[in-house]
């Protein structure tokens, strides 16, 4: 059967063009206003390198944490339809809709030195998350984890359980079924979940500056560096933004080649 | 209410200011350290004549300057220092800035000063967690000046975006001390303060200017009036 191509109605085309332009024009603005003559000099500074390294290490660590603690949670959520699961799912999704700065305040109240968990931790071990690199990772994980969990849970739910049941009747234990049957089937959603979690962690600002502070070389990630530069040297802020956009775009493109092949 | 206000100021708003200013409304952009005084000043100004309306926008001076430079529709800009005001003057949009208030620095501590901090020298102690505003923020610049003149080396755990953010972190028990304005420490019940002697103190000078035309002139003129100066003094500000 041959494929029939019907032209989209003009109204749809017009609205689609508006949507695409709306997203693309800010990027054009950044590129148009970037001080290209001084670009190399501004982009090669120690501050930029420190911020880039911090951003990438912290966002990758956050994505890794999402995988380690988020996958079990996603598996449990996908394992049935109880009231408890529904309640937990709402609570897990909440940070997605909270303004990140509220997340930062909440993190302080929980894991800060005066927090309900952080207080005893600080008293017992002298360990506190705020103003540390671990705090940056914690803030990034806090905002990224819900995206990971809900994406992967969706993937797990759409898997046909009969394959797992068949493997079980053939004698495979639960761990082996998960590893050899379920996992390969949810791999696409796992990758998608890791990707959105990483992207969300990379862009994190509000919770980070509130919870982890803002110190060059320790907690000042790229978004914070952009914010600081905006108050002192707006041209540098544009350069930092362009660098961040370029690297993020490059990574998305590479992942696309690998994970979402061009048809 | 104050606690809520401080928390909301942990991070200044990055978004552009809302520009609902119509013909009669004067849009005033003011440094975060002026909040309490300017809320009262705005009320007094609105009472002083018919059709006088003020819309206040608070934030870190540096953030506000960036917003104005990039086209936010402000009629008046009140900055916590000359350096920040100069950035707006450079663009040609600020007219004839004048000093209208002064401020001094103080050391903010947890209530009761549990760590027994005695002065600027005490802030260098290893067992203390201290935060300052960033060097781009007027309060951070003044604090570094004061520490420099006292020859004290303090390692700030974070470059905070505003004095209110420092007070919030002390109030939450996250840090032991920070350098803030006398007026902020006085306005907050959640912190105590340790005075910094005159010889070590960096005097802060607030400047105000009208932006883009004369709509803001009546308000800047009002700031120089005895009534306005009395309000500023009641909130702990000095007269330039």
Describe what this molecule looks like in 3D.
- The complex is a heterodimer of chains A (263) and B (240).
- By secondary structure, chain A is mainly alpha-helical.
- Chain A contains twelve helices and no strands.
- In chain A, helix 3 (46-78) runs parallel beside helix 7, helix 3 (46-78) packs across helix 11 and helix 4 (83-97) packs across helix 7 (133-158).
- The longest helix of chain A has 33 residues, at 46-78.
- Chain A is globular.
- In chain B, helix 2 packs antiparallel against helix 9 (226-234) and helix 3 runs parallel beside helix 4.
- Chain B is an alpha/beta fold and 240 residues long.
- The longest helix of chain B is centred in the first third of the chain and has 13 residues, at 35-47.
- Chain B has helices at residues 2-8, 35-47, 61-69, 82-90, 138-149, 163-171, 182-187, 217-223, 226-234; strands at residues 25-31, 53-59, 76-79, 94-103, 105-109, 130-133, 159-160, 177-181, 192-195, 204-211.
- In chain B, the strands form two sheets. Chain B has a five-stranded mixed beta sheet, sandwiched between helices. A five-stranded mixed beta sheet of chain B has the order 7-6-8-5-9, with helices on both faces.
Beta-strand residue percentage of chain A: under 5%
- Helix count of chain B, per DSSP? 9
Written as H for each helix and E for each strand, in order along the chain, the element string of chain B is: HEHEHEHEEEHEHEHEEHH
Alpha-beta classification of chain B: alpha/beta
Chain-averaged pLDDT of chain A: 89
Straight-line N-to-C gap of chain A: 19 Å
Low-confidence stretches of chain B: 1-22
Strand content of chain B: 15-25%
Overall, the morphology of chain B is elongated
- The rounded Rg of chain A comes to 22 Å
Mean pLDDT of chain B: 87
The tally of strands of chain B reads: 10
**Could you tell me the radius of gyration of chain B in angstroms?**
18 Å
């Amino acid at each position: 059967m041959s494929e029939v191509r019907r032209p989209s109605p003009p109204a749809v085309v017009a609205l689609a063009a508006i949507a695409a332009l709306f997203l693309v024009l800010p990027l054009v603005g950044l590129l148009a206003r970037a001080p290209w003559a001084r670009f190399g000099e501004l982009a090669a500074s120690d501050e930029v390198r420190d911020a880039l390294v911090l951003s990438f290490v912290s966002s990758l660590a956050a994505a890794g944490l999402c995988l380690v603690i988020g996958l079990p949670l996603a598996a449990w959520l996908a394992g049935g339809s109880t009231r408890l699961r529904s309640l937990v799912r709402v609570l897990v999704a909440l940070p997605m809709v909270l303004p990140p700065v509220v997340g930062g305040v909440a993190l302080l109240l929980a894991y800060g030195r005066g927090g309900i968990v952080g207080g005893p931790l600080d008293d017992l071990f002298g360990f506190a998350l705020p103003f540390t690199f671990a705090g940056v990772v914690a803030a990034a994980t806090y905002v990224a984890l819900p995206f990971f969990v809900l994406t992967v849970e969706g993937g797990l739910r759409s898997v046909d359980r009969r394959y797992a049941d068949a493997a079980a009747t053939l004698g495979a234990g639960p761990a082996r079924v998960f590893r050899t049957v379920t996992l390969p089937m949810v791999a696409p959603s796992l990758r998608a979940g890791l990707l959105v979690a990483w992207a969300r962690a990379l862009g994190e600002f509000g919770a980070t500056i509130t919870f982890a502070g803002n110190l060059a070389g320790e907690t000042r990630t790229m978004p914070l560096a952009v914010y600081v530069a905006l108050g002192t040297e707006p041209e540098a802020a544009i350069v930092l933004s362009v660098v961040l956009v370029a690297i993020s775009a490059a990574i998305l493109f590479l992942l696309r080649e690998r994970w979402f092949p061009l048809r | 209410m104050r606690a809520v206000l401080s928390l909301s100021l942990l991070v200044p708003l990055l978004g552009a200011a809302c520009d609902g200013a119509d013909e009669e409304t004067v849009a005033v952009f003011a440094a975060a350290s002026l909040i309490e005084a300017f809320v009262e000043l705005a009320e007094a100004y609105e009472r002083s004549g018919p059709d006088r309306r003020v819309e206040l926008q608070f934030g870190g001076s540096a953030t506000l300057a960036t917003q104005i430079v990039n086209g936010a529709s402000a009629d008046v800009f009140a900055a916590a220092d000359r350096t920040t005001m100069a950035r707006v003057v450079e663009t040609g949009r600020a007219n004839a800035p004048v000093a209208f208030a002064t401020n001094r620095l103080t050391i903010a501590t947890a209530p009761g000063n549990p760590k027994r901090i005695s002065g600027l020298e005490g802030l260098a102690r290893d067992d203390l967690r201290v935060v300052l505003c960033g060097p781009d923020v007027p309060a951070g610049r003044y604090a570094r000046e004061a520490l420099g003149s006292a020859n004290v080396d303090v390692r700030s755990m974070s470059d905070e975006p505003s004095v209110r953010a420092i007070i919030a972190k002390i109030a939450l028990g996250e840090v032991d001390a920070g350098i803030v304005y006398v007026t902020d420490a006085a306005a907050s019940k959640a912190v105590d303060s340790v005075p910094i002697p005159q010889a070590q103190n960096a005097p802060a000078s607030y400047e105000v200017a009208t932006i883009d035309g004369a709509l803001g002139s009546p308000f800047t003129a009002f700031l120089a009036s005895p009534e306005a100066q009395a309000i500023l003094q009641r909130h702990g500000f000095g007269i330039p």
